[in-house]
Amino acid sequence: MDEERITIELEGKDEESGVLRLNDFIAELHALSVALRRTQQEVTDDPNSVSYRVAALSYASPYRVTVAIAPKTSIHKATPSRIARRFTSSLRMVKSNHRYARNIDPDVLDSFKALTAPVSKGVKSVKVFRDNEKEVRIDHGFSRNLDLLRISEQSERDEICGRLEQLNIHNRNQFHIYPMIGPKRILCKAPVRLRGEIIASVGSRVMVEGTAHYRKDAPFPHEMDVTDIYPLPSDDKLPKLSDLHGIAPNATGELSPEDFIREFRNARW
Q1: Where are the alpha helices (DSSP H) in the chain?
Q2: What pTM value is reported for the model?
């Protein structure tokens, strides 16, 4: 069987005799689900490659919920293992403040932040582990390291070209840009006045301008506050090299094309 298992262990506060409030329990399970899905996006472009199910549930103090990740087809039989490894290794890098933690996708870091939210409220402790691996404790130290990763950034005006996808206009105005080179995707936040342009550009190539946010030492931005969006022509509308033929017949003056190139190459032009 090619499925992988991730377990989350939750313990209520002593003054509550270890019992969890329903809202805290639901919030933590939702945060785990989102974090796994965000990690999945880093591993595969196919959103339907795996399924998630509750494989075990223990009502006691601590509470335990085990989530099984299973491939939907034989093509994706290795995907559950890749998701589980990436998920727990990313948690460990944040926990240990490893230098490679700065390379974790910002969307994944945001989902980890949600895992820490109930800690210090109605939850005494949160632990996450993969089968046969040591647990990762989600505590105040983890949260502090996470905050340092999320706020240690620089900002500057920039423009980015790419395909606009993953639109989210429910209580927000966000989308992702998928550049041809550089990062896999960049989260973009835009004002409401651009909603029409955003909707019209879904699935198309655009150039966005605004304030780009860079993590420390990162060569590419991970997020952008967009101020303007400009549609770009599709590939079939772009000029071809053959379209340049004969466009400037007198460009070489009295020289033949061969002599012109020769002079230019020898730096005597």
Answers
A1: 22-43, 79-95, 106-116, 140-151, 195-201, 257-265
A2: 0.66
